[in-house]
Design brief:
The chain is α/β, with parallel strands linked by helices and 264 residues long. It is 46% helix and 14% strand. The chain is globular and about 55 Å long.
Length: 264
């Protein structure tokens, strides 16, 4: 199977690094014209330059906009009025005791993780339906199913993404538009890599050993027994965004390394 996205346009939010960048790169390599997004113009420009060098002759552009706000989403849509592929990747997280999570914390994480995808899907999905082709993918998490007690607010937003994704998929009945969610497990993004390196120094062990021990201790049900790479997650998203995935719609697709300990 050869995935060819030539002639398709894609927007990946939160794509200057980590999983978002890996998704953007995968889409670009497959031939899509890709728009990167981040909050800072400097980081966006750097990511565009990097991607253009890594995936020639892909057409890459970048738009700096804070999609955790209504104004930021509006500005992004004004700059990019239509896309064939929307990847709702922007998200924040952070461990915090439930009794210490303030209303402001709840609002911030909900606006970022949930409302960014709601607003952008609302803006782009009608065009997809009119053209009778499109892909919307929400980057959720295994935490949507295994709610982490140290991040209940985060898990809640990831579960909400599954509901929104499924609901939007129902609106595509009989069309060539699909809406799906992808659920990564522990993934070795730049931030996680820094965390693991610090952990390795603290424990006086090799980085690889520190990473493996962290997964075994904190995600004992993992079948992979290691962090996934951002490319491994990106590969799933590129497939879901492809023409070849036309029969996959309304699904929650796990790239969690087998952490979720049930079948469905």
């Amino acid at each position: 199977m050869k995935i060819d996205l030539s002639g398709k346009t894609a927007l990946v939010t939160g794509s200057t690094a980590g999983i978002g960048y890996a998704i953007a790169k995968g889409l670009a390599v497959a031939g899509a014209d890709v728009t990167l997004n981040g909050r800072s113009q400097g980081t966006v420009d750097a990511a565009v330059k990097k991607l253009a060098a890594e995936a020639p002759p892909a057409k890459v552009r970048g738009i700096a906009a804070d999609v955790s706000t209504a104004d930021g989403c509006k500005a992004l849509v004004a700059a990019v009025p239509d896309v064939d592929i929307l990847i709702n990747n922007t998200g924040i997280y952070g461990a915090k005791d439930f009794f210490e999570i303030s209303d402001e914390d709840w609002t911030q994480i909900f606006e970022t993780n949930v409302m960014s995808g709601v607003r952008l899907s609302r803006a782009y999905m009608k065009g997809m339906l009119k053209r009778d082709w499109g892909r919307i993918v929400f980057i959720s998490s295994e935490s949507a199913l295994n709610i982490p007690t140290e991040m209940i607010h985060y898990g809640t937003t990831k579960t909400a993404q599954l509901s929104i994704s499924r609901g939007l998929a129902l609106l595509t009945r009989g069309t060539k538009v699909t809406v799906n969610s992808v659920l990564p497990g522990p993934t070795m993004s730049e931030g996680v890599e820094t965390f693991v390196q610090d952990l390795a120094r603290k424990n006086g062990e090799p980085v690889e050993e520190a990473a493996a021990n962290f997964v075994k201790q904190n995600r004992p049900t993992s079948l992979l027994q290691r962090f996934a790479s951002v490319e491994e997650v990106g590969n799933m998203v590129v497939y879901v965004a492809s023409k070849e995935a036309s029969a996959t719609n309304g699904a929650a697709l796990r790239v969690d390394g087998g952490i979720v300990n049930f079948i469905a």
